[in-house]
């Protein structure tokens, strides 16, 4: 009887060991349980289906009682908000700009950190959303870049902020970087056009302009957003002149600490700028009439938006909004009605409706005869419990081929398995091994479980023979 009891205990250990290991490997995910059969808890208002895929850049920063850094990720949403795929790149701490490219890939700007004492370096890469493969990647010597434009497959237009390391004074600038030759082929410095004595911007020796966005309007003109100047500017690449400015430093009336301005022209060629007026908690549009800027549209306020950081006008006249601190994406009609809403915790940065390419070129508010100030209405306004369920759902989304009727089977990219983003890489080399790192890491976990189980079996056999030998003695 004692011999049978020992054998049973040892066999139980064989079974329990892999179960315990598997459970411990998964406990870094949220404790909120969401199964594949559950309805998608991330969908809010859904009056109509979106036209195509929507990709959201999520920074993974949570505020509040359970605040802290989570993994940065890209989330692809289907027409009705179904999760098509979720992607986290190994070593990426902050995810910023994501741009659809004409060839069907996504051009991503992100930051990788190399420890507390080493500055963050910028990573540019092209992602194939159909296969999850990285077409190419480049780690560039620029700190914490928030936005870049792909001018060609080799040239990248960069908004270079915090350019103070190893230089005399501030070198915040716009530049064109050739990724194949590792050379800067053109640059435009803010200090040549703006003076620190004018009392604009932030700390001159640390983060003066915080230039967080640059767009190539055409081959010779670039739109830039020096956030700390509270304005957007248009730069002529050929002459180096500032063609015009929109905003007033230190005022905050026109815009305050804005993000992602987009340039449009109305049917009568009027220059128009749509901008996420972040610290005024609103989206605004300005038209340049007779040399002066006039605000033609305002939507949202502190009761409906929280630190919005992206806004794109869609061809149907609605505006796609990244409502950052509310952890959601909205499609808003000109009258403020929310017609499409999906939550993607935590902290949205950029959002693109993929089929329209980089910065969808929809009609201006003036061309829609919809000028005025409107309030956002018709949204779901998720509470904290619902956002927890959504977060858990996103973490589980990479584990299943088909989520809530979505077609994610071949498009599942990488892993977003909870936990803080604490990469130990020194960042001195860049490789593409991290694109499917989730499957790779999970494979190692299963391998470890197999070894432990095998070890337990060996121990049980050895223990059994030892026990039998003791009985015979």
In the CATH classification, which architecture applies? 7 Propeller
DSSP strand tally:
28
Distance between the termini: 17 Å
Q: Which percent range describes the beta-strand content?
A: 25-35%
Count of distinct structural domains: 1
Instruction: Identify low-pLDDT runs.
Output: 1-37, 399-449
Percent range of helical residues: 10-25%
Biggest sheet descriptor: 5 strands, antiparallel
CATH superfamily: YVTN repeat-like/Quinoprotein amine dehydrogenase
Q: Which whole number gives the mean pLDDT?
A: 80
Separate helix tally: 3
CATH fold node name: Methylamine Dehydrogenase, Chain H
In CATH, what is the class? Mainly Beta
Structure commentary:
The chain is of the alpha+beta class. The chain is built from three helices and 28 strands. It has helices spanning 2-26, 384-397, 437-472, and strands spanning 43-46, 54-58, 61-62, 68-69, 73-77, 83-87, 92-100, 106-112, 121-127, 134-143, 148-150, 155-160, 173-178, 183-189, 211-216, 221-226, 231-236, 242-247, 259-265, 271-277, 282-289, 292-299, 308-313, 319-323, 328-332, 338-343, 348-353, 372-374. The strands form seven sheets. It has a five-stranded antiparallel β-sheet, with no helix packed on it. Strands 19-20-21-22-28 form a five-stranded mixed β-sheet, with no helix packed on it. The radius of gyration is 26 Å and the shape is globular. The two termini are 17 Å apart.
Please give the structural blueprint.
Layout: H1 2-26, E1 43-46, E2 54-58, E3 61-62, E4 68-69, E5 73-77, E6 83-87, E7 92-100, E8 106-112, E9 121-127, E10 134-143, E11 148-150, E12 155-160, E13 173-178, E14 183-189, E15 211-216, E16 221-226, E17 231-236, E18 242-247, E19 259-265, E20 271-277, E21 282-289, E22 292-299, E23 308-313, E24 319-323, E25 328-332, E26 338-343, E27 348-353, E28 372-374, H2 384-397, H3 437-472
Parallel strand pairs: 22-28
Antiparallel strand pairs: 1-26, 2-5, 2-27, 3-4, 5-6, 7-8, 8-9, 9-10, 11-12, 12-13, 13-14, 15-16, 16-17, 17-18, 19-20, 20-21, 21-22, 23-24, 24-25, 25-26
Helix pairs in contact: 1-3
């Amino acid at each position: 009887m004692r011999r049978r009891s020992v054998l049973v205990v040892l066999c139980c250990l064989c079974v329990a060991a892999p179960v315990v290991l598997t459970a411990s490997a998964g406990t870094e995910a949220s404790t909120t349980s969401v199964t594949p059969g559950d309805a998608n808890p991330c969908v809010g208002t859904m009056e109509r289906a979106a036209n195509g895929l929507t990709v959201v850049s999520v920074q993974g920063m949570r505020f509040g009682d359970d605040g802290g850094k989570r993994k940065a990720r890209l989330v692809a949403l289907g027409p009705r908000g179904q999760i098509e795929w979720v992607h986290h790149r190994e070593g990426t701490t902050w995810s910023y700009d994501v741009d659809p490219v004409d060839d069907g890939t996504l051009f991503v700007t992100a930051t990788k950190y190399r420890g507390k004492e080493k500055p963050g370096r910028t990573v540019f890469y092209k992602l194939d959303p159909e296969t999850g493969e990285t077409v190419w990647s480049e780690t560039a010597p620029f700190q914490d870049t928030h936005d870049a434009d792909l001018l060609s497959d080799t040239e990248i237009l960069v908004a270079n902020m915090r350019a103070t390391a190893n230089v005399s004074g501030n070198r915040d600038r716009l530049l064109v970087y050739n990724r194949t030759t590792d050379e800067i082929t053109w640059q435009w410095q803010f200090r040549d056009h703006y003076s620190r004595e004018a009392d604009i911007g932030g700390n001159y020796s640390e983060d003066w302009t915080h230039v967080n966005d640059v767009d190539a309007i055409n081959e010779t003109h670039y739109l830039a957003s020096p956030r700390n100047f509270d304005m957007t500017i248009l730069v002529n690449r050929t002459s180096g002149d500032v063609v015009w400015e929109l905003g007033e430093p230190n005022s905050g009336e026109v815009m305050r600490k804005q993000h992602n301005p987009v340039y449009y022209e109305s049917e009568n060629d009027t220059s128009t700028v749509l901008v996420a007026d972040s610290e005024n908690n609103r989206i605004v549009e300005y038209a340049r009439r007779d040399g002066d800027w006039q605000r033609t549209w305002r939507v949202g306020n502190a009761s409906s938006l929280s630190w919005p950081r992206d806004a794109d006008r869609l061809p149907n006249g609605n505006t796609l909004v990244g409502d950052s601190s509310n952890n959601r994406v909205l499609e808003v009609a000109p009258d403020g009605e929310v017609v499409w809403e999906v939550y993607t915790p935590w902290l949205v940065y950029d959002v693109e409706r993929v089929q329209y390419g980089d910065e969808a070129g929809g009609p201006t508010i003036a061309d829609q005869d919809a000028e005025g100030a409107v309030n956002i209405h018709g949204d779901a306004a998720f509470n904290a419990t619902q956002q927890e369920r959504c977060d858990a759902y996103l973490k589980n989304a990479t584990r299943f081929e088909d989520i809530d009727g979505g077609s994610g089977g071949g498009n599942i990219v990488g892993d977003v398995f909870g936990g803080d983003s604490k990469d130990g890489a020194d960042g001195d080399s860049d490789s593409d091994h991290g694109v499917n790192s989730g499957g790779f890491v999970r494979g190692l976990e299963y391998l470890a479980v197999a070894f432990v189980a095998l070890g337990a079996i060996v121990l049980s056999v050895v223990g059994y023979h030892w026990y039998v030998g003791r009985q015979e003695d």
